[in-house]
Amino acid sequence: MTMTNEHSGDAAPVPAPDVATTPPRTEDAAPGIRPFSLAFVAGVTVTKWTRLWAERRAETPLEVFRSETDRQVAVLHEQSADVSFVRLPVEQEGLSVINLYSEVQVVVVPKDHPASVFDAVTVSDLADEHLLQDPDDVPEWRDIATEVADGSRRPLRDIRSIDDAVEQVAAGVGILIVPQAIARLSSRKDVVYRPVSDVAETRIALAWLTEGATADIEEFVGIVRGRSASSSRAPSREADDAAPDARVKKIGPVAKAKAKARAAAEAEAASGKRSGAKKPAATQAARKKKQSDAANAAQARRRKFGGKR
After folding, report:
1. Burial class (CB in 10 A: 0-12, 13-18, 19+), 145
2. Cβ atoms of 156 and 12 closer than 8 Å
3. Cα(38)–Cα(93) distance, rounded to whole angstroms?
4. Cβ atoms < 10 Å from Cβ of 199
5. Fold assignment, 10-102+202-234
6. What CATH class has 105-195?
7. Which parts of this chain are annotated as the region Disordered (predicted)?
8. Which of 175-189, 194-208, 255-269 has the lowest average pLDDT?
9. Does residue 83 contact residue 41 with C-beta atoms inside 8 Å?
10. Which residue ranges does the chain devote to CATH 3.40.190.10?
11. What pLDDT sits at residue 305?
């Protein structure tokens, strides 16, 4: 989320608490080994991926830092970071981007707000509220907001962080609509957050420069995509091309069992049809025999009566 001071026109990103905002330098890296640098936006938890990196690439130091929202792509172009976990949408020219997961949007309100009694709300429930952020950040709200429609929306105060914004929510100044992960960063007892069901979810993605992608980048992309240690060093494109074959091999026994069951069912059905077909055949033979017996009896009667004449 980008906090905007509508009065001054300045935009300020939302930082995560207690996380460095500039890349730390690794002092104890072995000579000649360049640290691998990873950036992420507020609300993204990278622990599971950094742990795997440490297990598989202990010889390559890892630098991790939080990038501000308006610099989540700039850190790549400036080569401050090798990869960046970004919150979409971003300008993707020159980048390779893989979508990772969606984030539910929530409204942050005072603890005694009417919305607090519901499990979830809609934007129409919030139409009369004052939004403490740029309305363009939440177009679903902007399009139905009373203060936007009648021109009564007042300029925002200087809001420089998510903590500042939540402070104003707690004071009853207005509301916030942000990804749930952002709301959790500044959780406090005097505010609550509830999902907004009809606001589009945001998405978190991993981005890196397409040109000049290094083996380290390919390795980290493999880790994020869930490749095993034995295959993670393969270039991502080659690994993706091989993935369908791996899936086929993996499901082979299942497919075989299904085919076997299907064949048995078809055989049973065919057997039933054959046994069922015998009955009509037997009936037809009996009918023919009956007709033949009747014909023979009639012929015998004709001979008998003819003999009498």
Report:
1. buried
2. no
3. 20
4. 20
5. D-Maltodextrin-Binding Protein; domain 2 (3.40.190)
6. alpha beta
7. 1-30, 228-309
8. 255-269
9. no
10. 10-102+202-234, 105-195
11. 58
